[in-house]
Amino acid sequence: MTGEESQPVPQGRRCFVSNLAWRTSWQDLKDHFKSSGNVVFANVMQDTSGRSKGWGIVEFETAEQAADACATKNGSRVDGRILMVREDREDRDVKRGNNSASHRAGESSGMQVVVHGIPWSFDDQQLMAIFTDRIPSTQIESAEVVYGRDSRSRGYGTVKFLSSEDAQLAIQECDGLELQGRLLSVKLDQWG
User: Where is this region: Disordered (predicted)?
Assistant: First the structure.
């Protein structure tokens, strides 16, 4: 029996992880989950002040690895807290339906970009505004600045658009843009 026959509902590659300790970082999540498979992305969500929201996302190379993580890591402990782990219900690969079959690990969906060179003081809203201010017609699903253990920006992040056309336009308009003395690099995200 193949995996498709045993799973009539598409399984995503992302896990939603909640009940995180305030001090738990994305690196802690990645380290904890790597025994389930190849972690291609991990993030702990933070508010505008840089404080953890107590939840995060872990994305794996395959849906099978994500399913294993949901089964084996739910109830495990990190930084003294018992984690609650489930499939990410917002996983856009699953929500897209047919597109998820053609989106394999290491292939870009064409709708997410990685932005390097973000000014250090920028938060998620300011990252989004880089694109919406210059291209008012663009539609963005989300924008996330990556923060380190010290709650400081790492100077890069991801922006998810609602269409590949918007992502391409963002690359054309904003790659090489200078903001606050930093040069932006905007490229398609090979994992997004």
Answer: 88-108
Backbone angles phi, psi at 36, to 5 degrees: -90, -15
**Highest-confidence range of 65-79, 95-109, 141-155, by mean pLDDT?**
65-79
Q: Which residue has the tokens 């690990």?
A: 105
- For 100-118, write each residue's pLDDT tens digit: 333 444 456 788 899 999 9
Strand runs labelled E in the chain: 14-18, 39-46, 52-60, 77-78, 81-82, 84-87, 112-116, 140-147, 153-161, 178-179, 182-183, 185-188
Distance CA 60, CA 97 (A): 18
**Per-domain residue ranges of the chain:** 10-102, 112-188
- Distance (Å, whole) CA 146 – CA 71: 27
What top-level class would CATH report for the domain 112-188?
Answer: alpha beta
Question: Fold identical between 10-102 and 112-188?
Answer: yes
So what CATH class is 10-102?
Answer: alpha beta
- In this structure, the chain runs to a length of 192
pTM over 0.70: no
